[in-house]
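User: Predict the complex.
Assistant: Input components as received:
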Amino acid sequence: MKAVGIVVEYNPFHNGHAYQVEQAKKETGADVVICVMSGNFLQRGEPAIVSKWTRAEMALAGGCDLVFELPFSFATSQADIFAKGAISILEATLCQYLSFGSEQGNIQPFLSTYHGLQKHEIEYNQLLKHYSKEGYSYPKAASLAFQQLQLAIDEEIVDLTKPNNILGFQYIKAIKQQNAKMEPTTIARKNAEFHDEDFNASTIASATSIRKKIFSQEQNIEETFKYMPRTSYDALHSYYKKYGVLHHWERYWPMLQYRLLSSSPAQLREIYEVEEGIEFRLIEASKTSTSFQSFMEAVKTKRYTWTRIQRICLYILIHVSKQSMSHIEEAEYLRLLGMSSKGRVYLNQHKGEFKLPLISKVSEKNRESLALDLKATRIYALAANSPQQQQLLKLDFSQPPIIYDKR
Amino acid sequence: MKAVGIVVEYNPFHNGHAYQVEQAKKETGADVVICVMSGNFLQRGEPAIVSKWTRAEMALAGGCDLVFELPFSFATSQADIFAKGAISILEATLCQYLSFGSEQGNIQPFLSTYHGLQKHEIEYNQLLKHYSKEGYSYPKAASLAFQQLQLAIDEEIVDLTKPNNILGFQYIKAIKQQNAKMEPTTIARKNAEFHDEDFNASTIASATSIRKKIFSQEQNIEETFKYMPRTSYDALHSYYKKYGVLHHWERYWPMLQYRLLSSSPAQLREIYEVEEGIEFRLIEASKTSTSFQSFMEAVKTKRYTWTRIQRICLYILIHVSKQSMSHIEEAEYLRLLGMSSKGRVYLNQHKGEFKLPLISKVSEKNRESLALDLKATRIYALAANSPQQQQLLKLDFSQPPIIYDKR
């Protein structure tokens, strides 16, 4: 059986995602789709709207066959670490292909970009340092360095000043660096201009705009109906009904504020990514802010992107020390969240060859390596009120991998 | 001018307290009453119902002339440390008398108890160790050791198995150990059997029972009217009106729970008083408890008194390390919370001779030594909702000592 791997957040799973899953299979001729999905917290440093279990369910209903959790340490990190973790999991599960979405849908420019930058590495790093010193944020400095450098590369390359291209580029880089055997491919993203019988402008919306709709109008889930597969919409609805909450940062604001107001600057400096004196800004802003939104606005500067600050806040909330995040290169386990019947067949055929230990249940043996994921889940649960909170709290222990065979 | 010192919590100030202030002055012939009062958190490891500023106001309206804050490190500690801090402040402000409440109202038995125990110190410590080893809580073991020992002492002594006598005894001990010059005296406590024109059974109730009334019936403050001086009642009422909250542990439960669920056992062991593996019990109970009350009930064992656990919870909430609480012997500053016009005269006459630095305003210079008190205030404020929370948060900086001259 041949597998294609995809890297996803599904926050939540929508029609655009369903299209990607379908295309990934069609274009590669793979039998199964393996997805590595962020857990309860995401790459932009924010909580997922519903738990990883419900999002795994959406993924399976939407055409995925195996869902593995991207551990917290990768899932919430900047693009290069995120990509390293994801690729190492897909490689460990023997994916023959990696498929990711991009604007142009052509893999060659991504490969050329990688080789071009490899060739001009020293020059690139010098430029990056130069722009960083001038006070630009890391993404901005990287983008400026790239802009200057791209003139020196002959071939068609991708524009790394566009955030959408950065992850694709990092996947290629991780594949090369890890000597992974999978072949990378890319699918042109659906957007509002794209016309298709099932997926047209009126049914495609980004996850961001879906969440915006949900959170702007007092959790008006109904409004998002047409942008999601029915299964996804139902899962979102029943999560809200069951746990009484859809997760977003404001729910965690009292905890973040409490943490900031009970920590000294020195204690905050022990937290991953807290540096350059931002700890003082964070503490001061926490005294006067009345919401997460107003807090973020008070902290924001030219030097720090919104995402970077949000990620720092997440590390403070989860209490992730610099020490615990050192040496992150590749994943160390495969946490299985769910499978379709076809996924199950793949698993049974191949798990003997998997290059990392498979975890389908938390036990004394694996508890230590899962520690950070388990902690993240505990804190994620605190957004709900009792008694639903207690149900969410034990989910990592009580929930077996989801088995989906309704297709 | 002669001063009598009293040690108080005023949680809240009630008719029994007003009687004590009056008697302390009358019996010692002092011109002013200096009180050293716990800040926002109290000796039983709980938040004060209203902030230290409002309680200082109650104290001044109730007859006190100077109110100093007993720093957090003393105010929330066990009886011996609590007493050491309080006595050192009263001594530093040149009190000629200490007056405290007791059942029998006679100082001699307290002095005899101190001398008796001094004489039999080794024996007492052996007995204490013996009972502790048998698994009794510290207070219980101390009480059993005392019971056995008291037979060996000829004179009339106080019954240290009664919690009410323990503090009085510790005051005497602190006076002797610190070589303090003040003379200790004691006043018989008012209780329901005591008859008096102004203070009779129907107007005397303990602070505990007053808080019970307030918190049991959806914050029914009206019910407590007859047990408090009008000034006290009004202050309580206007605090609630202004900040929308009367403080109690349940308000801090989400923060405590979050702290427990984001800490490892090793991190909890760094907290003052966390020992003997109680960290594991605390973490486990925090996963299943839906309120502070149910959490406490889940943690409680024969070995730990309710107060001891509550105090541990407070140290975890405020994030007080073992290191920061080592070497607590005597107070290092006099934080002035308020004064009457007579108190002001006393201050002006005597402050030159005060044995500790007087702080009436937080400044860069004293910020470091006040750090723990300031942190406690920040977290205390989080019980209120925004925007009142922000007002409470800055109170330690914006509020000058209260000046009361309505008498």
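The CA atoms of residues 333 and 357 of chain B lie 5 Å apart.
Let me know if you want any component modeled separately.
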